[in-house]
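We emphasize that the prediction below concerns an isolated chain of 453 residues; any contacts that depend on oligomerization or on bound cofactors are therefore not represented. The input was used exactly as deposited, without trimming of termini.
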Amino acid sequence: MIPTLALSMIVRDAAALLPACLSSVRDIVDEMLIADTGSTDDTIAIASQFGARVFSIPWTDDFAAARNLCLAQAKSDWILSLDADEHLDSAAAQQIPPLLKKQNIAGYQVTLRNYVLSVNDRIWDRPAKPNDSRLSAARQYPAYVEHQNVRLFRCHPEIRFVGRVHESVGPEILRRRRRLGNASFLIHHFGLAASQETRAAKNFLYRELGRQKILEMPENSQAHLELGLVELDNFSNAEEARKLFDRACRIEPGFALAWFFQGVALSKLDRHEPALACFEHAEQFGQRTALAAELAADSLYNLGQFPRAAKTYQTALRRDPRNPLLESKLGLADLRSGNLVAGLGRLRRAVAARPQAPDAHERLILALVWANRLVEAAQAAMSKLQSVPEPGPGDFLRAASLWAKLQNWPNAKSALESGLRAFPDHPALSLGLSEAHTALQAPTQPKPELSST
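Result of the prediction step, given as a token string:
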């Protein structure tokens, strides 16, 4: 007998998203179950047009409770759980059926591709990757971050979601000593690339639900970690985040990710010695990633321990050898350790490898100024203006100021004029240009130094 599959979703005001989501899955599932929590748009009508069984449920500020009410309506052997801002990958039609036939598996970890607006974004400790997706709906996004969640699982009364927010069936499957497998198909998630207003509303909701989750599960280290990340990433509240990560570490002393993020929060608070200790704990408990080594090296650099910082950046670079921004950090550490030639070589290679990255240019300019190689620093500042997508007013002022220190007023004037074309009537650029004109008109007089602010 062929196992059957049900789509299970909770939705609210998802009319704009639902057609693409349901189109991606309708030829794979045997039934569609959609629980509506109070839509005021055409969500219910659209879901019905796709043949879904739609029913209304009360919203009680509890995602797990809502999802479990939906699960209770299922008649199929297996459940596929999606959100309205997700699409099932087209290859899943061939990849899912064999998974349903495995007798000893209760659920599958599925990889989600979360599309983001910048290659510099991250989700938790996972950095973004350049987008190589062939999915037409995803091509507009520059990057994605992958993570896994249990989204395909048996329909069984013992398998239910837990957690008011960041809910999952995974903990219940593991608690009952049942087996999880790894699925080969993808789910494409677009929620992190939503409008700023939509993301802000979700952040406030997740913060409040996270606080309630901790009240209900005060000894749950994961709940403290999740709320800490909301405070850190979405509200820039590093001190509150630090307290939550510290509590997670006290509940579960071997929780590597909590140690890591406690280090991140301490770094943002400029408390680099305790941050370094946290990164060392994270490494000890298994968080041996390029980012963990990089941030530990950042702490060492900020503490003035440049040779140790260089060695730790080398560790990070071994873990992520194609990251030119890591090489630029290593270049600075080499330079500050006394290895000027090696350091500048690394910094120049990083700029050549990633010419659109502002940080790579900034580190090279900083290094050249520190080495008192002002002509090269001014040239590097001009190169940044020509290479990065959106140089700011400070970039034009930096270039002009360096040329002014060299008494090269024509180049200073040129940089300022370029800046004013991009930022008309900017006061500091206008003042600088006035000073440059004065200097050019009185070449025999002592040259004023351009204002940098």
